[in-house]
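Quick check before the chapter quiz. The format below is the same one you will see on the exam, so make sure you can read both the input and the output lines.
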Amino acid sequence: MSGIAALGEVIIDFTYLENENGQPMFKQNAGGAPANVVCMAAKLGVKTGFIGKIGKDMFGGYLRRVLSDCGVDTRGLISDKNFFTTLAFVRRNEEGDRDFVFYRNDKISADLNLSYSEIDLTVIDDCDIFHFGALSLTCEPTRSATMNAIEYAKLKGKIISYDPNWREDLWESKESAVKAMRSVLQYVDIIKLSEKELQILTGCDTLLPSVAYLLKAGVKMICITQGAKGCIIASRKGIERYSGFDTPITDTLGSGDSFYAGFLYKLLDIGKPLEELTPEDKEELAVFANACGALSASKKGTIPSMPVLKSVEELIALREDK
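Here is the expected output.
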């Protein structure tokens, strides 16, 4: 099985915990959607690499150790003393949705100051799937670095994977965000997004026009996550819905990334071009990905909650036995 390389942000998530002695507590965790994807894929046994920039500080050192401990190749991860590692604070609001506060801008944040000349292109050379997220497109110089890396990967014949990962507060405006998020679609082979992200990216309120928009833009396969309900997989051959797993939900942070890492793992495992996937192949992709997302959501933490291959296979076998 060949590998996955991701470019983008690896950050510190400070996750809110229950009050202790009347004081709010936050637990330090590794985060960043592209980093989560390669960590989960590495846990499944895939060769993975990560391209990005962190501060040469205590947080950056922690993040490098987490990725290395997961088995991710970090030769493309740059430590820069001139910038700080990006921080995010996460807690649930009264409606139960996640509320993020980011300490991130182009003047101080390492992940926004990656230049193309700093990218180790051998990390891309060594992969079959090149994955990136929209947060690398928010500003320069990382926006240009990302675009150039995508073009390089496309010229090298890599499968291009994209996660729009909508975070409104990190963009100058919704209009500029949508423009930037759409600018890469011409290169994308596979996209993973939520129903809300689908609506924002395409400007369409219903499924069929949204899927048609992405297919017309050149995307070959669309993975729409639906949380506990499962997912929708769409391509030019049709649209199918696949049910999720009935597992307890403890913490959904990172479960979408676990889902997608499982999808990419299974795609490599099947080993067929996207255009040649059968309905049976697509069902296998969706079931495996849904199992990865469900197991991740059943435990607290992001990377620590990500399951290994044996656990995923056991969950799938349990449902098949019923």
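If your answer matched, good. The chain has ten helices and 13 strands.
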